[in-house]
Records
---
Amino acid sequence: MKKISILALVLTIAFVTMGCQTQVTTLDVTGSDTMVNLGAALAEEFMKTNRTIEIAVSGGGSGTGIAALLEGRTHIAQSSRDLRPEERTRAAARGTLHEITVGWDGLAVAVHPSNPVNELTLAQLAQIYRGEIRNWKELGGNDAPIIILSRDTTSGTFFFFREFVVRERGQKRDAEFHPDTMMMPSTEALYQEIARNPNAIGYVGLGFLRPTIKTIGIRADEAAVAVLPSIETVMNKTYPLARPLFFFIVGELTGALQTYVDFVLSDEGQQVVRNLEFVPIR
Amino acid sequence: MPYQQRLVTMAGYTVLLITALIFSFLVQQSWPFIQEHISLEFFTGDRWLPVSLPPVFQIRGFLVSSVMITALAIVVGVPFGVLAAVSLAELLPHGIRVVFRSIFEVAAGIPSVVFGFLGIKLVAPAVANFFNLPTGLTGFSAGIVLSVMILPTLVSLSEEALRNVPREYSEASYALGASRWQTIWRVVVPTAQSGIAASILLAVGRAIGETMTVLMVAGGRLATPSSIFEPMRPITALIASEVPNAARFSIQFHALFTAGLMLFLITLAVNAVAASVIVGKKGR
């Protein structure tokens, strides 16, 4: 049995290498979980026409991707958050840093479909996540505790949400998620808990919205009208909870890297961004 | 010494060496944190803010969670496991025994992510309904799933210990007029007790070290839980969740290793205490 499998392995390797008469360049793309489907779709579309460049996309979180980039383990880090100052310093030490915005993502705040609350102001959302509002009753909902869900620190959404909502765009510099916040290991897990738990609230990328959870309309302040997230409202900047999606690259932007980045920013690439319910850059 | 014997001896030492290397690696990676940042608050505080400025690392909540979940898994799992082992070794007819044994062997190979998934889909909703909790992703759900996951270890090792009791013992017992029931509980089980205790120890190790399931099912809440019916995050889940994101050689990275070291020390302490108890009993 073992001999047969070793033989099969040798043969496979032989055939694979025989097929590789033209040289294939492999690009590693890793990072944001929000962007992993986007990255895969872009790579797939790209590889249809560029047979000499192979693109391997993986997720793990923006932080994972950036860490990999700074350690030279990936060519492109997909990230849904900006670099932190110390990451920027480390990147600069390795070479020229390229920050490319490849699309936009709206963060949708979602609850269970049975929850009567339909809209929240950014301030109320911040109070919920800081633990200052703890019962749905205070927001016109049922008399039930609010179960706060968040992604864990691997996710770019964590940093965006903390900065933008919990810290009110940096105005409350030391504010943190309330310790009762449940840190979910994946967007899928978070999504599932919202879909099942009538008292839960959480935030997910626009691409993750499905009919089994209810999206909350967001009001920028007391005076503003509630806006639901959609491609249109993110593009015309009326939806307040939107963020750019980045490719981070360190070093020379040449050869296969250049070809791929050009493709992603082209009309063709941006169509893929739109198809996956993210928002194109133009 | 013939070379075969030397080879076997070397294999033994290699395993010992690898364990020692793992431990020294843990200590080495924790050292920068221990040296500069550790204080009493690391053990007694409830805040864990790894990516804030300045970062805060306090692990009481994770320690408490690990202990709670492991304790529940053991309290629920051990009686089932040991009783199942007794029935397998002593009571069930041969045919059923063979089937059960192979079922447990297969169960031991089920990846923990599958248990985690079952926990999310079946156990958590059931727990939430039954106890009327705001969420089912709690330490209780995780402990229940873990209690099932430790069964294969418990059952197969305990059963082996029971089967290794020499037949002459039970025959002697029967000869004295003892019933089957009396023989099992007065002769067979007491003779096998150090083997059964060893299986419980391994089960504790399995439960406290389990990562994927608790990451998925326990709920990931950072605050120190005041009851097992709350969402919580044990040390293993903390490490699994944050190590991929921690920049290498950052304070967060070293702090996570320190948390891992604590887990290692707890397991070591549990084993040492249990081992001394077993040795003490034998010496009597």
---
Amino acid sequence: MAQLKVPDQDYFHPGHLGCPGCGAAIAIKFALKALGKNIVMVIPASCASIIVGPYPHSAVDVPVLHTAFATAGAAASGVRAALDMKGDTETTVVSWAGDGGTFDIGFQSLSGAVERNEDCIFVCYDNEAYMNTGVQRSSSTPFGVRTTTTPGQDWKRTRKKNIMETMAAHRIPYAATASIAFPEDLIAKFEKAKEKRGGSRFIHIFASCATGWGAPSDASVKIARLAVQTNIFPLYEIEDGNRYILNYKGECRVEEYLQTQGRFQHLGTEDISRIQGMVSEDWSTLLRKAGEAPP
Amino acid sequence: MKQVAEGSQAVSEAVRLAKVQVIAAYPITPQTHIVENLSEHCASGALNARFICVESEHSAMAAIIGAASSGVRTFTASSSHGLAYMHELLHWASGARLPIVMADVNRALGPGWNIWLDQTDSLSQRDTGWIQLYCEDSQDVLDTTLIAYRLAESVNLPVMIVLDAFFLSHTYEPVDIPDQKQVDAFLPPLSPRFQLDPANPACFNQFVAPQAYMEMRYNIQTAMQQVPESFRQIARDFKSIFGRHPHLAEDIQCDDAEIVFVTAGTTVSTCRQAVDRLRRAGEKAGLLKLKMFRPFPVDFLRQILNGQQKIAVVDRNCSFGASGIFAQELRAALYNAQAPPGIFGYIAGLGGRDVTPETIEDIYWQTKNEDRPQTENKWIGLDQETLKSWRN
């Protein structure tokens, strides 16, 4: 991985409303370092809509349009159209949605926007459940997880939706995964996305949630790092929907990741080996798509 | 220049003349001609605007909100289910104080599927904080659309232009389409007080605690209360440039009337004809055309209708469990009048069923034959055979 410097300049400031150890807040901090001041952010209902501050405060140095839950893709499209009509092609429009606002209620609007190849960066910061409303499952919640709507023995039996593949299926110019535990990689991807003007760019950020995942607040970065090291959340890019570029190869077993969080603690050995099987299968598929040798 | 145009074209010509910059829309019958015309205008360069072909009405309004928040003039159009699907964003647009203009083609809601005239779609959006202006004919549509932009931009509230499905949207009649110079003199370019701007970053529509939310709502109500007076001023300007004088409500032969019809949309034209016939037969019929439904012009209505004997409200809609919505609003508006009239509510012409001058005359005689209203509303022209067959 290229060793890049993390810019000193911050556009996201202390006093924000994130929980201690909030992965989403870390994601905003690094993304804004890469994007700089000349952006308009569009934020649908999400933890982020709280984190960036209540009226009359703001924790960010950029303009923010807060919008309804399902509408990030559409609202960003409208901002882009207006800026273009005003002759402003320099400002980058960045939608910043959680997994609910991307995978679920916001999916139609996002699909519409990227099918039109809107000239925006669409970001999903993914904490794998509805955290702002108190940890309810989303279609991004992985197999095996307990949430407040998948409690007890009804823990989630279906797999996490592969949002990157849905974006690839729209053949957008650029899609990438990123992690709060790999800030230089994350910054490089945002800088790359910002340079690729003229079409839709999608960045899927793994943003751990200590509060919702049953983990100590000082473990957020460690957990995010393990997600990459176990290939549970691989770092990769997809150009034009078909050129896959792998950024990291993990070698750890999933147990190392699962044991760090309360949300997996009820799982037995069989469940864990099933999860390992799923992760290994997905990893092999990804390697094949990236033209790499199988493990 | 006079041109033969359908109601849909009256909308799209007004939008072209208003130099709208961003349009987002999703097709639904019978709104389609409006957005097709505008697509043509954008493609040909007659209108320098971006047309966003969104994947739903919900996204249409969201995109327009994004564009309007960025300080450009915007437009969308919808109907029926499309408008219902937008509902959440209608609240968002008014709460964000955006001067958006949209056209709603009044169409029935399913089930059963029905594409024809019914006012329930727009009227059930009455609490969303949108100004609502109902149109009688194509000229009214064009004029009202131009006025809507001035009005929206003067009070920072969104405006819904409402026109009847097919009877207006798809009916051709002569329309005076003004030239660009006249419209430019009437409608200056948008100069928003606030817009998304990286040089002056601010958060729009953010989280707000109880200590300020109520004041924000109060400001919307205050702005709404200014609308009738703003409309009057703008309409006077309109008259000085275009020679026509649209009114928020229009009273026709009300002074000595024994029965005054109250209605909106194309039914007003039908009532005009019925009133003429009744007058010729020596009957003292009058008519009040309602253009503005939100805000409900209570003061004006009290002034005209106080002391009248009877009013007959023709509603092409129904709030189930209550009554026709115009009748309901009039009862509330006139309750505190000094001498409120008897308010006779009639529900007619739902789902595109014809309301003819004969229907209106029938309503007149039914009203004349009763001293006081016996029920909140009467349903006109129900087919008893059909109802009976369903009971068996």
